[in-house]
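Lab meeting notes turned into a lecture example. A postdoc, R.K., suggested we walk through two folding results consecutively so the class can see how the record format repeats. The first protein's sequence and structure tokens come next.
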Amino acid sequence: MIRANLGAYLALNAMAYGLFLVGMGVGLLRPELTAANAVSLQQDGTLELVTWAMSSTWLFSLIILAVNTVGLSLVHVLLPSAIVPFGGIAVFAFWTFDTGVTLAPINEVAALTMIPHSLTVLIEFQAYVLVLLGAYRLGMSWLRPGTVGARTRRQGYVHGLRQVGRLSPPALALLVVGAIYEAVEIIHLVPLLLS
């Protein structure tokens, strides 16, 4: 499916990584935005949950996996795209930019943390790009059913959902690998770098 949609796949990659890097650049230029995002994570309880979950690598991995699969992939990308064509792509674009701002290496600790975390970003963003490709194919099949051999928009929609289903297993596999690595990285690798 990637070969058949190579242009869209490459464009989604460019969007995901590009907006992340632009967000980091904005965070570097405006460190008060990065600080505000950190305060927001503390106020909404995210930081407390992360600290509690870090007591176990496996528990932390499961929480990361749940957030990335249910919270981001399903609720923020696929669900909006199932209601409004390409809606989840727009939501993800905002999330990616905001994440870049949040992770901007505005000090030595943040810069050192990003060394091992760069691999997490690479793995998880590839999973998200597969989910985004599914959202793109759903939107195209829905809006232009004739391009997938469907006679009606409803048939195109169902065809698009099947394509989402085909892209979901490899995306999930990448999210599992990413969650395990991210937990190991945050609990074990980052403290070694900072010591």
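The second example is placed directly after the first for contrast:
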Amino acid sequence: MTLSGNLAFVFIGGEHQVLHLAPVAAAISLRYPNITVECICADGRTAAALHKVAKTMGADMMQVTQITWPWASRMAARLTGIQSSMKGPLLAKIRWLLRNAHAIIVPERTSAALRWFGWSRLLIHFRHGAGDRAPSSEARLRAFDFIFVAGQKDIDRAIAQGVDRKRLSAVGYIKMDYLGTIPAGLRLFGNDRPIVLYNPHFDRSISSISLARDVIARFREQERYNLVFAPHIHTFENLDAASRAEWQKLSEPEHIIVDLDSPKLFDMTYTRAASLYLGDMSSQLYEFLTTPRPVAFLNAHGANWKDDPRYAGWHLGEVASGADNVLDVIDRAFERHPEMVRSQSEAVALAFGDYEGAITRAAGAIAASLQSSQRA
């Protein structure tokens, strides 16, 4: 039978989640002309990112709709000072706007709340990222009819959280499949010093962000390495303009880049250009390691990490106890890297699966899910 229906792809987590799912929306609109594909977002930067994917893939039929935030969302953010508090009222609005959709597909777990607002049709989740951290929000996966992840690691973790294996499918890492067809960007610096990418996580309970100023200071004092300070885009989302300017002052031409919110934080501009990754808990580690290279980590909280599965990635490089020994640890990571290549490649395979063709596989899997629901 000819497959038809209305699919809504909802992006309320920010533009950094677009590349984890939008290419699939574009592929469906190209492959299944009788399916209406609409991408919903609530900010201009996410809308622009969605339009860019549609243009790159030639998906003229993929619709992008930017909706306004409800007054209750704006009030919640004003009262709490936390951007994520805006999502509840927004999801209630989305539930009403999409009442005629046959399925809603999302790249984050907060949208599990659509069930609380009465959504009873297909609800599909795509995991963005493929790190080792196991947040408490993993339990929300039980709200979804189908869960698509990159590789076996996420399947094992979801099962451990009590998710029905029948709901889980590994399709490969969408973002890597998409970016693999796009040439890398221009050089970041006008010299040939090795580039260290420092990418702290936004969750301060596990992040090394408290050490960031000291780490940057160590790089300012030496001339062996260039540095790109590129924290997760959520790290400074609530920062005022004056504080943001203070961070920007730490940059140095042809030596140190400080980037707090540009698309380069997540479009792999920096991970492709860097010679070494320095971080803590971000899944960008595995994006970086698709080409095996030296990695190092900052243990900012004195974590007993060696037998903790949340820190599995730390076994792929060297670990510093703080800013004082970070440069020595980076030197050692370069020296010992040949010993790490095999384990790095195995870790990426476990996290990302076979990411070539992931977009096509994911598009086909969503279509099959829709067809199955229409037959039921």
